[in-house]
Structure formats: C-alpha cells, structure tokens
Amino acid sequence: MRRIAEILGIDPARQEVEPGARMAPLDASREANFTFFVAHDTRTMSRAELGPDEIGALKCGPVRVVPAAGRTTPREMFDYRCAEELATGLGVAPIHFPGGHNGNLTHPKGFAELLRTLF
After folding, report:
1. Phi/psi at 53 (nearest 5 deg)?
2. DSSP 76
3. Which has the closest alpha carbon to 42: 85, 94, 89, 7?
4. How far is the C-alpha of 61 from the C-alpha of 58, rounded, in Å?
5. Could you please report the per-residue DSSP string of 84-111?
6. What whole-number distance in Å separates Cα of residue 5 and Cα of residue 42?
7. CB-neighbour burial class of residue 35 (10 A; exposed 0-12, middle 13-18, buried 19+)
8. Does residue 56 register a pLDDT over 90?
9. Quick one: average pLDDT of 90-115?
10. What is the pTM (predicted TM-score) of this model?
11. Mean pLDDT taken over the chain
12. By three-state DSSP, how is residue 83 classified?
C-alpha cells in the first residue's frame, strides 16, 4: 500500500479533503478489490504501451476518451504523466478533477459534479 501511494503521489497524512467528505476505511470489502487490483491490473499496466496505431484507434473509435488526472497530483507522478501523454496523443487537454489521484474519495461532491458535466 505504501509503495503504491508513493507511485501515485498520495500522502495519506496530508490529503486535502473537501468539507463533509468521509474517507472510507480499507475494510474487508475494499481490501478484496484492492488485492485483486495489485495482483492483476498493476502487472498489465506495467506492460501496456500505446503507440501511434493505438492512439489513432482511440481517436477514431466510437467512444470518447477523456484523459483526466487529479488537480493536486504531482506532475511528475506516473498517473499524471500517463494522463498527460494520452491527452497529447489525442490532441486534447487533460481534465483536472478535484483532489489528487483518489479525488473520488477525498472530494466526492466536486468529483461527481465534474463527472456529470463531462458526461
């Protein structure tokens, strides 16, 4: 957990939280999902590559791709750089959501408001 938080630029002790937000604890139900993510999804992400052909397919495909990152995510972090590179490839600006990588938890109202606006 600690290493993943470092990679994503999350400092649990210093997260900005919108008024009224309640951080959900990592209980058994969330832990099972997180364990699956670490065991399976992170391996896939480390091998994934988006070259010109894949970017072209995303541009021309039927689904609108919206590169996004947390507003407070440090710009040198992996997840922010991925959003920035994808946005550049697609020729769009990345969308900045409230908070950092986990803004849906720290800023649920602001996150939901922007998400509704985008969709």
Report:
1. -65, -45
2. T
3. 7
4. 5
5. HHHHHHHTSPPEEESSSTTHHHHSHHHH
6. 13
7. exposed
8. yes
9. 94
10. 0.81
11. 88
12. helix
SS3 70: strand
Instruction: Judge whether residue 107 has pLDDT over 90.
Output: yes
Q: How many residues does the chain have?
A: 119
DSSP state of 14: G
**Tokens read off for 83:** 């959003």
Q: What share of the chain in percent tops pLDDT 70?
A: 100
Determine the Cα–Cα distance for residues 37 and 41; give it in Å rounded to an integer: 5
Instruction: Give the bridge partners for 97, in sequence order.
Output: 70
Three-state SS for 68? strand
Q: Provide Rg for the chain, Cα atoms.
A: 15
CA dist., res. 47 & res. 49, Å (int): 7
Residue 63, both tokens: 């689904």
> What is the distance between the alpha carbons of residues 38 and 40, in angstroms, rounded to a whole number?
6
Which 8-state DSSP code applies to residue 71? T
